[in-house]
Amino acid sequence: MTAPELAAASPDGFGRMYRRSFREPPTVPSITTVISQQPVELDGWRSYMAAKHVADHPELGQVAADPSKMRRLVRTAVDASEAYARSAAERGDRVHSYAEQLALQALGRPHRVQETLEALRERGEEGFARSVDHWWQAFGVEPVAAELTVWNHSLGYAGTLDLVARINGRICLVDYKTKGTSRDGRVKSLDDKVAMQLVAGMKAEESLVDAEAGTWEPWAHGEDPLLIAVAVGETEHAAVRVNPEVRRHHWSTFCQLRRVWGARVEAASAGRTLLPLAPPPPAALAPQPAVGQPPVGQPAVGEPMDPQPAAALPVPDHATPGH
């Protein structure tokens, strides 16, 4: 993921946060940080990546008969999923950078299209750039703003939109997702969470004008733009739009997740959660029985309890004395 100018990692481990200017500290979470409060099950994927690392290792046949070498290989496999995730994130940054520079070029602003294209070529990733180009041409994209940072005061969050564009005369908010390729050569499908990300962007109240000066302006792109997510792969792109009928559901979920993030921050700042506990002083303790003896006031194991006197037993209403 790219790093917007006013975004910064929270020193307390609460994800990425935004500030209003370079002179102010971060105060609100990013859209992606809020969405990350939703649990995501990755155990299966991590296990698969670790197993794949072992299975694909060129020295697997040589080390299989040597327990010590096999253990070392297994230890390296533990980090395989994290290494793969970092690599995928860095690739995504390069693709996003290329798409941003393409928009800046179309807007007539200073750009680094060739530099970002070369960064992809050096790693054999030029296919992703071609997919961005094909999407751009097929949809007749007319950029309005690239990497636009937005702010919502009412709920308290901020984020950065990949692209605001006009397509077929309509304002669109666009989010790029770099995806892998399936066995049949098609780009892999997008996760539904991208809808929540775009809806949160649509609910912006302000957009950034100048990061250095910390100046903002009211959101100028309406409450009903077309929300588009583009899966960018090596072989092709696939564009989808968010169904207008489900927007409110994703917005409701996002609002709840924002409250979850806020509750976590409040709990962490309330003070230390777990405190050490020492036993009470000996004088405050009741006499302790010898090992194997019951506590004071209780019968020993196997010793019958004193029976309740017969006179104290209740007599049922229907019973007659002497019967």
UniProtKB/TrEMBL annotation:
GO molecular function: single-stranded DNA exodeoxyribonuclease activity
Biased composition (Low complexity): 285-302
Highest taxon above the source species: Bacteria
Disordered, as annotated region: 279-323
Transmembrane segments: none
Protein's recorded name: Cytochrome P450
Organism ancestry: Bacteria, Bacillati, Actinomycetota, Actinomycetes, Micrococcales
